[in-house]
Amino acid sequence: MIRTGAVILLACLTAMPALAQMGLRMLVPPRIYTVPGVEMSLYFDNVVLHPNANSLLFDVNCSLGRHQQERWVGAPTPEQVGEYPLTLRIVSPQMEVIDEATTTVEVVDPAAGAGRNVSVLCVGDSLTNASQITARLLDLFAADEAVDVTLIGESGPGGDTGNRHEGYGGWRCETFATTWDTEDWREVDGRRRRTRSPFLFVPEGAEQPALDFQRYLDANNAGQPPDFITILLGCNDNFGADETSIEASIDTMFLYLDRMLAAFRAAAPNTPIAILTLAPPAASQDAFAASYGCGQTRWQYRRNQHRVIEREYATYGNREAEGIFVVPVHHNLDTVRGFPSSEAPANAHATEMIARMSNGVHPATPGYWQIGDSIYCWIKSRVAAN
Questions:
Q1: Whether pLDDT at 187 is above 90
Q2: What CATH number is given to the structural domain containing 131?
Q3: 122 and 92 in one domain?
Q4: Torsion of CA 131, 137, 142, 143, to 10 degrees
């Protein structure tokens, strides 16, 4: 009887991981863009909502690229321009399929758009404000023999670098849609900060400000609409949400995002607008401890971030005919090596120094560059299509 009970217990323990995995929520984007010379990755932990994706077994089926431990990675050559179906499966130890998703890897002709100079407006929060994503775009287009780029915006690192954007730390969709002040900039805590939305103006004869993207373009792009607009927001909009409030939080974010989209579309009726998927957080709770103490957990933020992307695809996906695109960047960010870390003693009495991740949501330069890679490859795809 004891032997029989042990066998039953062992069988139950063996089955538990598979049963837990049945509720997995996969977020493989419907299309992954890449250009020869630019590495593109599908990190498994970023597209499967699971507290320990490293414990899962993955199986990738694609004639392009390589299936490594933590990712599928492709670095195509010019001879590999075309489309490649990719299937990602989660399997049991017996190779039974637990869940699967498919996508198309689009390898864009590097010569696409020969002779064009495209203007790009990048809108976002502190991830854009870091100016590393836009710096990567400038570098990629500088090496692109077919297409040149002009970035527009009223913020950036300064100097004659061409690195311009509309990225501001702590900002949300609501900030861009509603924040007003008598001055554009003012000194706050010894730092020069933006204090009103760059897209808000008081109409002649009115008392209240209103979104007016045309006036913004008059001041920043000779009145002409940009060729592309990217929006990378959602971190601050939903940072404090939990299981009881995340849906309402996203509803509020989309309310103000829709106002922004309407304003952009009124002045730029034909400009492709990319809603960039919300970037995943650093892989370790250590990063959240360094940034927020006990104020937030990595897993809660990861659940919020995953749900935001699900809602982004549900609300704004399949609207390419309107010029609105959900452009994935979440799949291509190394959340282990693409975020800052620092060395410290393991504890107060230890002599051993260990590396701990040190920022919850802000990547290090390599991580920012991976986001820039994803944006560049999407722009090249649109240039190739037109």
A1: no
A2: 3.40.50.1110
A3: no
A4: 130
